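Researcher: Next entry in the queue.
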Amino acid sequence: MGAEQEQHHAPCPQCGSGGGRGVVTRKVETLVGEVELARPYFYCVPCHQGFAPLDATLGVARVASSSTCARGHQAGHEGPLRDGPDLLGN
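Model: Structure for this entry, 90 residues:
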């Protein structure tokens, strides 16, 4: 994760152009509670689109889903790990 946090250039996922960089924080709900994540954020002028490549690397959805976290917590308490995907809807 270190290299991605130091990333200064990233291609736009829509058009491939480079984007300007800033650092943006967001709150992410995890199984152990809410955490604040600071990550590089890029903006593509031609596409008028912002993107944070580290989100995809970490598997963090655009909008954190507390219902998924709750189902994961439930899965951990209701049965063996092999049943987890069924309880999570996967």
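Model: The chain is about 30% helix and 30% strand.
Researcher: Noted, moving on.
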